[in-house]
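Final report, Chapter 2: Outcomes

The project's central promise was a pipeline that accepts a single protein chain and returns its three-dimensional structure in a standardized token representation, suitable for archiving and comparison. That pipeline is now operational. To close this chapter, we reproduce one record exactly as it appears in the project archive, with the input sequence first and the structure output second.
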Amino acid sequence: MVCRSTDFVAITEVLYDTPYNEDTAISPHNFGEFIELYNAHEEIADISGWTLQTLSPAQTFTFPAHTIIPPHSVIVVAYGDLYPYNQVSDEDSRQEGWTDFHDLYMIEPNTCLVIHQTALLLPNEDGTVLVLRDNKGVTRDSLVYGWLQNGDGMYAPNISVPDYSFCSAQRSSIEFDYQGISHFCIGCWSGYFASKAGETSPNSVGRLTDHFGGCNILSPASSANGQNYIQRITPLVALSAIDTASILRNPSLAQVQRDYYDAMYRPYLNVVYHNTPEQHNTATLTEYDCYNRPTCQWLPIAVEMSCLTPATFKGNATQFFSDDSKPYIETLYSTATWGNGSLYNEPVGVRQAGKDMGSRMQALSSRSNRHGEVRRFGITATGALRCNGYYPDSALLVQQVTDEDGKYHTTYTSQQGQAIMEQYGDNADTYYVYNLLGQLSFVLPPLAADALSDGAYSDTAEVLRQHAYVYRYDERGNLIYKRLPGCEPILMVYDKTNCLVLSQDGNQRARGTYWTSYKYDYLRRLIYTAEVNTGSNDHQDKIDSFHNWYVIERFSTGSMNYPMTNTGYSRNFYHKQPTRLLTVNYYDNYDFLALLPDSIRTHFEYIPVSGTSRCSKTKGLLTGTRTYYLDGSGDYSSTVYYYDYRGREIERLSSNHLGGYDITKNTYNLSDNIVDTWTSQSAANGVQVAEYYHYTYDHANRLLTTTYTYNNEATVVLQSFSYDELGRVRKRAIHDAIDSICFAYNIRNQLTQIRSTGYTQNYYYTTDCPQDEYHTMRACYNGNIAATTWTYDDQTNGYTYYYDPSNRLSSTYSILNGQFGDYFYTESYRYDKHGNITQLDRWDNRDAMNSLHLSYQGNQLREVTDNGYGPTVYDSKCYHDANDSGEDFAYDANGNIRYDKDRGIAAIRYNLFNLPDTIQFSNGNQIIHTYDAAGNRLRTSYYTRKVTTIVPLGNTLPVGTTANYYTTHDIFHCNCVYHVPSVTSTDYAIEFVHNSEGYIRYLTRAEHYHFYYIKDHLGNVRETYVHPAANYKECIQRMQYYPSGLPWNTNFVANEQPYKYGGKEFVEMHGLDEYDSHARWYYPALARTT
């Protein structure tokens, strides 16, 4: 619920002395006196439970339930004791000199609500204080009045005969802030006196509110309840001037955020105005203890008030989180002191929000180390690693974090602030070793530290080669040597400006004397990268050579001594050596376009974009690039970037490897959010893909809708978002609202449910899983998911998860069709101290499909032994242990897998970026990938041998012809996948066009349909649907996965489309069964990257 404060009610008149009270001898003499309240708002004001109080004497009148004031109307609280005169209607029952209230003050009947009370007398002494408070105790208005002139209040002198005068304080205008609090302004009040009704007087009381001139509701910028604050205004549209009041009345103009500070200059309240979808304010509160330490961080709430007191905020938070009594994060501190008496000021615990957390907290502790607890490593004069006993007592600061489930992480820090050792879970100790300059030289993972005894070790020692991370530096502190476990070192060289100019990894050394070269302009911006054959691998010689050189290139379209392949740059420093360009960058201007042939340059001319204009001042901006293909052809794609006056990219024009061109145009709003995107791709055979996206945002820059137009077809609303009052996505409607995906969260913003028409997934953390009837779900208070269930067509499946002391997933138990079982589709894992899986057990509907024992050399997997039943079906998704002799895997100098005997992979060859370009299978089949120098996969060719050919281990066959192979070729570009009939063909046929909710698939060159995904919290594709306008079944695929990402063998039409776990392409051809995760390939059968 939203805490509303739309009541703008104030005191507008106090009549505190009348001559009528002396007309009767009955005490107290207060008959006829009243207080008038005015509702200045457009809505009805409910003032039930509000109070009127005088401070001296202390008196209180409480408004009864259901007391309301209509918009722009008044209510009168009148004193009456013996005679409730508003209920007396006949003349005979009235006492002499009395009449009812309306007649007394000449008010038309039914125009003013009058409440009679006897609890509150209105004193007429000087300095009387009258206070109006709401039902939360917040002071809404106050007034000081009296007989005598008083600078702090109002006064009204009597005429000569007190018995014949009225004395009142009347308001001419009101000033409210956005909390509904009116602020006293002496200029807005006037003191009045008048003769007794019926007598001649120019100041007759007449009707109520005669002297009321209206009200002014001030913005928070004009009134902040006396608090200090810092205000930030972020315009959402172009404004000629900053008028806070206007902005707050129209939140689409700008976003206003304010940080309030208390009297001790501590930020205690943050308010973002009109930030929620319903345009309420978002507020957060920070509380402090008496030592100025933050103790409670309250969760954000939606309110209508602005500057809240802590008490008001807490009351509102209790209402907002009505189903949870703990909407705050609590930080606990020790009461201990240091030896000098100063307070121990570090936190000792943090309790997360939510009553379900109970007393559990993340415990924080600090102490000094004990002798024999931490081993002491150092560096010798020759750079060798030295182990020399243990740190003495109190040499290190020990800080331990124990999470809510009792799992701990301990850090040991030196007096210089360097982390010396980290410990996770079961004594898995990682050591960090520094040289005399404080530079990190060795990282010793747990198995390395366990294997080392006292003494000195060269970095070539086998235990360090297999387990340790090794770093070396030059005299300027530049990293020149980096070695990862099991890999050959990466060597680096720098110039005089400390810019990296050369690097070489182990595979480059294995191929010869190849280095990657980096060139810079005079502003030290990278202008091109290339691989160069330097003719030498002498690392120190190169360090010495470049030590005092400035590696600087300048662009020129004219002639130069050593031009670099028509790039406008030179080949200085290595002008005679063979060079392969990788990337080229251009800055500041578009002179480089002159280097392109006319036929290409015409495609790079700026195309005007509606709603924006190109800026010619591009100093400091990247204006063009070249990205070379890694197929040895020397071809490349060129890209030109155009910008607006704010340096935002408004147009990108590129050539592509399809023999065509790409166009991307953008428009933006003032907040730099993209509003429109036009994209166009073309290929050499004339195939074209044109897409248009239009985005709308709300007043807080949250995405509301994405509309999508493909090739001038009918526009669809691809996405439509709605949010809750905390700004979390509540619902996402897709494809013209054909389906909606709803989301639910707990108080800690953890996702608890995803629900669509055909799929529902629930997540459990601290609460029990309802399907877990016979086993105890181990609740997770540290944020881990304890269980999850998903439902397809009323069938519920799921997993409960168990974690080891290092928070690694150790085992799962499955729920199948609503029944809990130990061995349905479960996995369990055991790890070494490095996190490598040493045992993986996998069940397939109660069958022990895999029971894998994994053996390592360092971190490199060498052999897998399967004691499970191992299904022999070719396409079954599990691990197939096909090799029974020797090691299953070998690795190259960079740590990449060279072959895999169990999958029948004879050789894998990698490109410069350690991405596989050739996968050769032992039976002659091949998978050939082509990448560019940006790491983008451009093409994948699948070759299936017509006649099996045995390929020796470590060898690759030449790429075959169609006479020997069945071939399939997929071409990848941006969000599209094309198909060609042969490796040299340019007859591109579109297969997939991906968008943010699914894809368009071509069944023939002329027939295509829209498909969309339903995904879980990890982005795993769970269901794939076709747009119902197609003559096609609605749900075409339904996927379920093991925790490792391996698909279940019982999935519904699993091969319908290949994008699955994590939304990544699952390449199954020839039994590869890997996900293309772009930077690496992931093999789910072993839960390892390749």
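Archive annotation: The two ends are 50 Å apart (CA to CA).
This record, like all others produced under the grant, will remain available to the consortium after the project formally closes.
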